[in-house]
Write a structure and sequence with these properties.
elongated, 191 residues, mainly alpha, 9 helices
């Protein structure tokens, strides 16, 4: 059986290539082999589930992670049918230490937000943003972009504008553009 590290790198490669089905296959293989699921692999699976039209499953996995992975990783499968869930008990033994510290971070929330956008779950996306604020989880540029996209898809212009204004008030979210203050961008009169 390949190591957790090998699976994690392969899952990362699938994510970068947008190969969502293969990513989920590898995730399920990790479960089948009883390997602990690192947060990065779970985040990628949440994103892949959202990208493949299974936002509800993505949010189930996110909530499992958010609960501190208090259940074994064999209880949350990326497969779309509930009959594919494993959980005879043998698969989960000895892995509590490996999954107990799973939890969620900004990347986890971002994957869930993107799943909400893909699944048109606007209300859930706004709840996730609120939860991030309440827990003081850093909202980064991707967090705002996904939340704005959810508001846009729901036709909630005031929320989209409010989020954009909030994002604009955080200059640390923007990479250096190389422009000096007062300079106008491409094609402008200040060049």
């Amino acid at each position: 059986t390949p190591s957790v590290e090998c699976y994690t790198h392969a899952i990362g490669a699938c994510s970068q290539a947008g190969q969502w089905a293969k990513l989920l296959e590898l995730y399920d293989e990790m479960q089948h082999h009883g390997l602990p699921l690192p947060r990065v692999a779970c985040n990628a699976a949440v994103l892949a589930l959202g990208k493949t039209g299974r936002a509800t499953r993505a949010l189930e996995l996110f909530r499992w992670m958010d609960a501190g992975a208090s259940t074994t990783n064999s209880e949350v499968s990326s497969s779309s049918s509930s009959s594919s869930r494993r959980g005879s008990g043998d698969e989960g033994r000895g892995r509590d230490d490996a999954t107990a510290s799973l939890g969620v971070d900004t990347s986890s929330f971002n994957a869930a937000l993107i799943a909400c956008v893909e699944g048109q779950l606007y209300g859930t996306a706004m709840e996730l943003v609120q939860t991030m604020r309440e827990r003081q989880v850093n909202l980064n540029a991707l967090s705002y972009t996904a939340a704005i996209a959810a508001a846009q898809k729901a036709g909630d212009l005031p929320a989209a504008v409010r989020l954009l204004e909030e994002m604009s008030a955080r200059p640390e979210l923007y990479p250096s553009s190389g422009r000096r203050d007062g300079q106008v961008g491409a094609g402008g009169s200040g060049s």
